[in-house]
Amino acid sequence: IFSKTGFAGEERIHLEAGGWYAKRNPTGTISIFAASEGNSISLHLTPAKPVAYHSQKGFFQTGDSAGDSSFYCSYTNMNTKGTILLDGHLHDITGTTWLDHDKSTAIPTQAGASPLQNRLLVFLPTNEELMLNIVQGPDGKNSTFSSGSFIDRGGNLTHLISTDFRNETLKFWKSAVSGIRYPLRNRTEIESLGMTMEFKPLCDDSESQNW
Questions:
Q1: Angle at 67 between CA 66 and CA 71, to 5 degrees
Q2: What is the pLDDT of residue 89?
Q3: 63 CB contacts (<8 Å, ≥6 apart)?
Q4: Side-chain-side CA neighbours of residue 11 (13 Å)
Q5: Engineering a disulfide at 130: which of 62, 122, 153, 203 sits with its beta carbon 3.0 to 4.6 angstroms away?
Q6: HSE of 51 in the Cβ direction (CA atoms, 13 Å)?
Q7: CA–CA separation, 94 vs 75, rounded Å?
Q8: In this predicted model, which residue has the larger pLDDT, 33 or 69?
């Protein structure tokens, strides 16, 4: 029987809600557990690289207003092991996880306080990672507030400003339910890194729960 009470620790990552939890262990690893309707997932994540603080030590602007700002950092590469219990069958899993921490000062109900942001997170086959935070202005074009980070094999971060990369949306999908227009296919070029990439989702329906 899961308790409906939630708990959170202040000195390190420790969150509990309804029997689900995410916590940092004394060894520095992070454990995550969640269960629903007889299925469950249990993961143990070990950072392979240091925390990446994006933009200016984790702080960046997303618009002209003083409220359009965020604090954003990530574990971009975590070795992950665990188990999934699905339909009565237990599966061992291994992989790589990207863990984000993002806090924004924008007020969602305030008109114009939350510029539209599209964030690309990429694991590269070279054991490097790329983050692009693409901010769109009122005219729908990419804003000068767009930025990014490139993390090399050793965990060293190179900050990218809006003029360092070009991003073009090749295809959109519009939800008949919410009316939201989602970018589907993107082409991104970063000349200084010698990169040209094209991204497309596993399915067009960005709101579907039945992937």
A1: 105
A2: 96
A3: 106, 112, 113, 115, 135, 143, 145
A4: 2
A5: 122
A6: 11
A7: 17
A8: 33
